Amino acid sequence: MESRRIAIVGLGLIGGSLAFRLKSRGHYVTGFDVDPERANTALHLGAIDGVGLSLLDGVKDVDVVFVATPVGIVSEIVADIAPHVGQETIITDVGSVKRPIMENVSRMDLPVTFVGGHPMAGREQGGIAAADPNLFENAVYVLTPPIEPKGPWPEALAVLKRVIQGDLGANVTVMDAVTHDEVVAAVSHMPHVAAAAIVNALGQTAEKIPKALALAAGGFRDTTRIASGSPELWADICLHNSASVLRSVAYLQDQLEGFQEALLTRDAQGLEEFFGKARDLRAEVPAAQRGLIPSIYEVMVPVPDTPGAISAVTSLLASAALSLKDISIVRQREGEVGALRLGLADGASRDLALEILLSEGYRAYGR
Question: So what's the pLDDT on residue 114?
Fold first, then answer.
């Protein structure tokens, strides 16, 4: 494996996850973040080998730069660092919107090669504390060519493919910026908007019936968990991909209006067709491939409402080095058996957790 010097600008969830993984694969990784405390935390956690004292110091003498900042400032960062890196340095980004970035970069006379990038993986939680070196395993990683390819673009693409596929374990797809933005508006941006709208609609019901929130467990939590994402991040993303998001909003409105009409006219066949079409289309979505909306692997464990019941379960899993990504209690009643809901990182972890709990006599089951 060829070792490279790699710089990460922005050490949040994506930047931190890149840093952890690339460092573990033998690359020398430096990092820079506008928040010095976050950069020092990344160093303390072992995500990076060194911290840049400034933006330019952080990218000095490196082979590849990953710009992992909010979409709105990626172009500015690229313009700032491009004159100060080596001519063979490759600059790429991880922004979930590509068209404005690629158009801005195309207007710059860059002395180096810039390749747009977007790892289609994520979590509800953000920040370096949520970073995971395995975040990109089996995820689609889109690389976007320059609007007017020139210079060593093919060579840069080959290098990034080796790093992304060989070191991150992701699957590279090359896609133009316009197509990319239209697709992610439908598969990522719109679902976040819809989840937020569903939660806000529940809020309207809760204004009249406060107990509504207490009943919103199980399926509601699963359906809307992505609404827990960063408001600042998603406002930035939607603003920079507004045209595509608006088209997806229109498509969603069409679907809801059709459903509303069928319900008002008591059109049972129309309602069945609505739900049937959705079921059939969903069956075509790849099950094993990670995407922008993270999968969740759950174990449900019935536990009594007694002191130490929860810690007994979590201690068992901790002894097997299993890390819980989410934990909550559902259908809990005073003095009765409730269900402990455990979220794990992947299917293998879920299966191991089930094996351990069942062997200890728990009536656990996976979801």
Answer: 94
